[in-house]
Amino acid sequence: MPELPYRRNVGAALFNRAGQVLIARRADVATEAWQLPQGGLDEGEEPRAAVLRELAEEIGTDRAEIIGEVPEWLRYDLPPELVGKALGGRYRGQMQKWFALRFLGRDEDIRLDLDPHPEFDAWRWEALAALPSLVVPFRRPVYERLVEAFTEFTRS
Q1: Which stretches make up the Nudix hydrolase domain (predicted)?
Q2: Residue 6 in 3-state DSSP?
């Protein structure tokens, strides 16, 4: 693994009133690649502010409140074939601060079409426990930790 840094990032597990979480399909890959909304931290930006900004940018709404967080930063490494290509070629993977949020809006508030270059082309509500089996393999350990940390929010 090259001596590249990790990209600092925030992630959002957005729960609806039924205790399901929003998962979205990436628009920029040829295969089915599902994930939770996430994105990079701007210089000097606080993670709690960043997660709401990322929701607004990626799913068109920040109608949510933070209800929990994973206490530690989670990391994943890119597979060797993606190092030097993914994440602008500048990072070995990501170091992420994950938050659980309660969605305060309506499904109609979720708009993937507001960004001229959307990251996602589809979304749905899914059971939290199902997420590790839906994401790319190199992200599974992070998603398994999210299931462990956020199961309490699946109860409506």
Answers
A1: 5-148
A2: strand
